[in-house]
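Pipeline run #58 for the internal structure catalog. This entry was flagged by the ingest filter as a single-chain record with no existing model, so it goes straight to prediction. Upstream metadata was stripped on purpose; only the residue string is passed forward. Reviewer on rotation: M.T. Logging verbosity set to normal.
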Amino acid sequence: MEVENDVRYGNTNRAFLQAMLARSSMTFRESRPIIAAILNAENTGDQVRSEQVTEDMFDTFMGTAREAASLFDYEIRRTQHQITKERVYAFVNTASDPQTQLATTFNHDELAFVKRALEAMFDKYNTPRMEVIALTDMQAVKLARPNRRESAVNRNEDEPTQSQATIDKGLKHSEVEIVLEHLVGGGWFEKSREGFYSLTPRALLELRPWLVGTFNHPDAEEGEWQRIKFCEACKDIVTVGVRCAEPDCIFRIHDICEEAFWRMRRNKICPKCSREWTGNLYVGERAVTTTQAYQRGRRQSGGRRGNLADEVVQSMVEDEREDEREDEREDDEE
């Protein structure tokens, strides 16, 4: 059966928009059975098979949904998955901040945990020498209760103090596991085969203004190292990719963008700092899993992960602190 694109806004478009609202994000692959089911609901003839749904049909449905969503303070934005390269369309609320949206799913203590998890991803495990920007189960469990002595990110002036707001009581370890499951199920986090949690494309789209405003310094000079960095090619946030060998250089690029980027250049020299491009230093979980310590631990444990990633990350943190102390001693001697 041949299927024609319906450019009019009708029940099929309303059903597709509702599907987008329910899922928050969608790829072409995910859309095919949905569009087929929607068309079959009104079709009195032959049934439409999901493989008959074309990209042109998908683009037509998505374009109509985007126009309709714009009337209600929503946008449908597009990005690419940093690993699979799939186009991802996400439903973004432009009228409220992400914390308000998350508050409809999580209570105060759970929301406080989510914030600690984000701070750990983008602050504690995101430094010039170690850009992991992800969490393991073990690291997440350690964030179950708030640290009263220090905060990964300084509190904003407009943010209420503990005496003004509801006291953060923390979570039980079992509750942390439930929240992580809900974050994955809700399309905010994704979990890799190696057991690392990171932000989904949808979350990066929605949280982008908050991430930049929270973790980057607005008065930073051009070229100064910042925690939120962008792909030199596509300009989207990089949480999985390749980095320059110079620790303080801000050049980052997605794996999916790298080949085309270097194809257009005469040599593989970092355009930011002019250092030779090695291509073997990573952003994301590979900053841990490609280290000799991690690979050696995997071999010794027979492939079992256990708390290996946590041990390697802790060792990297301690090495970085020692490097910082050494730099301070050298500065004092000068």
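catalog note: DSSP finds twelve helices and eleven strands in the chain.
catalog note: The chain has a mean pLDDT of 86.
status: ready for reviewer M.T.
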